[in-house]
Batch of 2 targets.
Target 1
Amino acid sequence: MTCQEFKDALDAILADVAAEAGPARPSASLLERAAACPCCKRALVEWTWLADQVRKLDRPKPSADFAHRVVAELKRTPAGSRRQAWADASPVVSTLGSLVAIAASIALLVVVWRPIEEGASQVQVASVEQKSPLERPAALDVPVRETTKAYLALAQDFARTVQLADPEPTDGTPAIEPEGPARDSSVPPVRSVLRRSGASFAAASEEIGSGIRPIADSAAGAFAFLWKGR
Amino acid sequence: MGVQNEERRLVERCLEGDESAHYEFVGRFQGLVFGICLRMLGDAHEAEDVAQEVFLRAMRSLGKWDRSRPLRPWILTIAVNRCRTHLGRMKKRPSLTENAEELPDLRPNEDDSNELRAELSVALLQLREDYRQVFLLFHEQGLSYEEMSEATGRPVGTLKTWLHRARGELLEHLRRKGLVPETSHDLSGV
């Protein structure tokens, strides 16, 4: 008998000891073989001793009212009760809950994303509107006209401001030219065009070959000039 | 066979809603269930809570019990599973038994056998959960390897290995404490 076979046989004995199936003792042949092997003998003695000690351990008992508590709890939540049904179904419910939460998150993303997308397209439109009025597409004609009116109002305000704050000197000294890019000498000054012909901004724009905004800017100066010459 | 018939009748009465059968059922198995819970968890209050849970689960699932099999291993299976679940939860909390060796020994002086029992209980709690479970089912509850395999869902070979290691670790613990008697070559005492 090898050590392993011995241990297997010993397991059976220890199981009897543990199950209190009587004074389980190794058979004579087992003892004889164990005596020939120090390893087996040691195992036999120690393991049998250990099993005996475990058997001698106190058998713990719960508190005296344990059975009452269990039966009371059983009565309180009998099988099939709503609470019990909930406890049984809780894994399914939690799975469904997770799915609903995921679906709600997706829906929320869609709801939030759509306005963001629309907002982005509005920003694109706004950026188109901020371009030079003449560069705007025909579809944006109405807003352009409104912008032009605003420019004109601004120009009038500017003209008044210039007239009040910076009157052209009358003592023969040259007027101070406003700072800005150098004017192309081939382009006739807007104020003279406007004064000469009483042309509209559009006509002046065509004649000068410039956009409406520069014309409006120039108109400020023209107004100032006209105001002064009044 | 008589025991099994008796158990079958008891279960039938429980299923019929007989309250006295409920009391009888709990009284019959409470030592077994509480014992394994206490040895596995190491705390009487927690063991009682888990034992109560085991009984509630068992009594609500009596209809699923295979009547051709003994009732005891079936209940032990539920107890072992509940203990494992509880231990899993406890691992998330700081354990009191982890530092048991670092704490000063405040126990009153005991005679050798009491000391041995106390040390054995401590050693059991220090075993790895799997080893402890197998050791208790085998040595304390007297389950066979097949029944243990069914209860734990592990192959018999694994259980034998765990049991062997559990014994070795327990003996080593007790040997360190000087509580294992010297082995003599005389086997007459065995």
Target 2
Amino acid sequence: MRTIALALVLAFGTIAVTSCGKPSANTPTPVQNSPQTTVALTVKTVADAANAGVKTVISLRDQGKLSPANTVTIENWLGFVATTDKQISAILANGQPWAQQKVAILAQLGTVTAPQIATTIDPGVQTLVAQILTLVNQIRTQVTQ
Amino acid sequence: MNPWLTIALQLEPLVPVIIADFRALVKKHPQLADPAAQAALIAALAQAASDVDDATLAAIAADQAAHHPQPPPVPQG
């Protein structure tokens, strides 16, 4: 009886190893995200980046590294990014076909430009703006693919 | 004959059945491939992003109100 039990353990162990290690023609292929899911993930990343950006800007202003005027300029720009991001979220959730959503999202993205800030501004702020613009461009690329 | 080999030979016909059942199970639960599940995921992500954007806008408004308070309204009359 014990021998049979050991044999069964051995046999099932062998099955597990061979079935996991060698993908065959019938192995299910990994499921890819839909384009909307990919864009939605980046939209969420933009939201998080803008939110973190506001905290960074306030902190830099409080440390005396950013002038009050520049703080307002960046905050207003981050507010515009957040508003646009929110509108894109609403488009993604509206249930329309992707072809229509793409056009609407691209129209929103077209309104986002770089803020008017001096090149001598704190490097942390420059990095922050560059990162958010990169993410916005990433959404544009994902939508047009 | 080696007793292990005997048992293995007896079990061998069952192996394809077990693997086939496992594949059938995977085919039964393709959660992410399901359009309804994808739509739910998109809606959840969009809602989460929207909530964070609301928090961002509120933080900006609060900071600007604290640092640039509006002048009190001029009393009428």
